[in-house]
Design a protein that fits this description.
The protein has 198 residues and is mainly alpha-helical. It has one domain. Helix content is 64%, strand content 0%.
């Protein structure tokens, strides 16, 4: 009997093993509105909060970093995609050194508020992308279940395509699941760079 496309017996065995381990939903967390589409091993945290990284001096509730063009330019530069954390930290430290010592307790918390805002935008975008991938992967897994015992040529071809799509999604998931934690680590490094200048 024909197995799965060009993959032969090994692909058929892979499909059986994969289906045996697929849960009803692919999320490891509790099946709630917030976590049902969450496919990553890391906990889902939709926002990062300044308080996790910054204590004193306090960040003003009405921190208007958007009104300072120099701060906006710096924030955009160090949070841009692909900027190494070490480079961003160095730029923040260099900027802090240009602020008079007496003003740092006022300026640096406002700067950090802007960093939190920008990184949160990226963080939410990453969460949304991961959840979209999770929904697509769950749909592919459901399709594979319906084709598990297929024997006709068309269904076997669909199963072959679905299996390849599932593998591709899994590889992509492995990369994007790390993005939120990388953003959180970036924010922590930036907080340390600024606090060292206080």
């Amino acid at each position: 009997m024909r197995r799965i496309g060009r993959g032969g017996a090994s692909a058929f065995l892979c499909l059986g093993l994969m289906l045996a381990t697929l849960p009803a939903g692919i999320a490891p967390a509790a099946d709630t509105a917030d976590t049902a589409d969450w496919p990553c091993p890391q906990p889902r945290a939709p926002d990062v909060t300044a308080g996790l990284y910054w204590e004193d001096p306090p960040i003003p509730a009405d921190a208007r970093w958007q009104d300072d063009a120099a701060l906006v330019t710096l924030i955009d530069a160090v949070t841009a995609h692909g900027v190494p954390v070490a480079e961003g930290s160095a730029r923040l430290a260099a900027f802090a050194e240009t602020v008079p010592q007496a003003a740092r307790a006022r300026v640096l918390p406002v700067l950090f508020a802007g960093l939190v805002a920008r990184i949160n935008e990226q963080h939410r975008s990453a969460i949304a992308r991961i959840e979209g991938l999770g929904r697509r992967q769950a749909a592919i897994a459901a399709k594979l279940r319906t084709l598990e015992t297929a024997t006709d040529e068309d269904s076997l071809e669909q199963r072959d395509l679905a299996l390849r799509a599932y593998r591709a999604q899994s590889q992509m998931m492995g990369a994007v699941c790390h993005v939120p934690t990388e953003l959180e680590a970036r924010l922590g490094a930036y907080a340390r760079a600024l606090r060292a200048a206080l």
